[in-house]
Amino acid sequence: MLRVIAVSIAALWVAGAWPAAAADAINPDADFKAFRDYFTKKFPKVPLNDFVNGPYSMDAGLRKQWEAIEDFPPYDFAVDRGKQMFATPFKNGKTYGDCFANKGIGIRQNYPYFDEKSGEVITLELALNRCREANGEPPFSYVKDEMASLTAYMAFTSRGKLFDIKIPNDPRALAAYQNGEKYFYSRRGQLNFSCASCHVQSAGQHIRTEVLAPALGILAAMPIYRSEWGSMGTISRRFVTCNSQVRGVPLEPQDENYRDVEYYLSYMANGLPISGPGARP
Amino acid sequence: MANSIRVRAVASGDHTEVQALVQHPMDSGFVKDAQGNLIPPHHIEVVDFQHAGKTVFTALWGPAVAKDPYIKFSFKGGQKGDDLAVSWVDNKGESDSLTAKIM
What we know:
The complex is a heterodimer of chains A (281) and B (103).
Chain A: H1 2-24, H2 28-42, H3 60-70, H4 76-87, E1 113-115, E2 120-122, H5 124-134, H6 145-156, H7 171-185, H8 195-201, E3 206-207, E4 210-211, E5 224-226, E6 231-233, H9 235-245, H10 256-268, E7 278-280
Parallel strand pairs in A: 5-7
Antiparallel strand pairs in A: 1-2, 3-4, 5-6
Chain B: E1 5-12, E2 15-22, E3 44-51, E4 54-60, E5 70-76, E6 83-90, E7 95-101
């Protein structure tokens, strides 16, 4: 008798849960379309490819300043340094290029990707440090300096290439995507902001003197020289400072959650051109 | 080390417009590091721009100038293809120089 009840409850549960689960099913393609439509409807005058220029696509005055800056870009030194680092072999004679497809040139648009072997999201920054460790070199700090120079060079050689992020047919990849999406829309910190509070709902508005960049294509310009920082910063640095700006406790750079957010946002940017390295106020 | 100077000089009419960017920490000597120790002063003292063997611009910089300084000026003369020599010296005696072609 008990067993019969248990079985019928289980059957009910399955039957009841199924439609709800279907409605909540992860559908990156539908997300992608909704995400893009949201921004193109909110900013009908901004050409799609211009979203990668972040705040400059939203504010004509800022754009003028930026065009003057681009005449003489402050990230130039980082690109040079990255190029030099790429050309300098490790102690074992190998180079960064040996760790990457096409010797690391023009591949930024394929990162981050989901690695089906290890079951995790591999970002460019993580791949660079793994490359160093595999060659017996100590890893770099994820947030600035050397790491920013390397990613600046790799982004520079990939300028204009279109984001091409794939979600393989693997439940773990979908789970990573969904986790990234969840992190992006979850509120946190004393100010109780989610990433989306600023970069989706309030994109284009001012926060003090700054213009909030739209989340669409927001990673395309990374790494960036921020005048506020007075130096280059990576995607990790951006995530960490965003978290502390809403008075939350930031995660460690390249934490799984950050990598998943990067995966989610880059997937949303599919088809948009890499514009990094960038300069931001 | 890669060169610390970026220069762009463009001749237009009888003037040449020069923009330059120098990578330098420009430590004032008044700032403390995370351990509370004073970061010793380390800043550029003289920047010099020469065209055809003649100094066209000299800047005497001190601790008040920002990190990675940018400079823009124009001078009379200068033809497309001419050399423009830029150099700086800092308070530790370090220096760098670069010769760029006027565009």
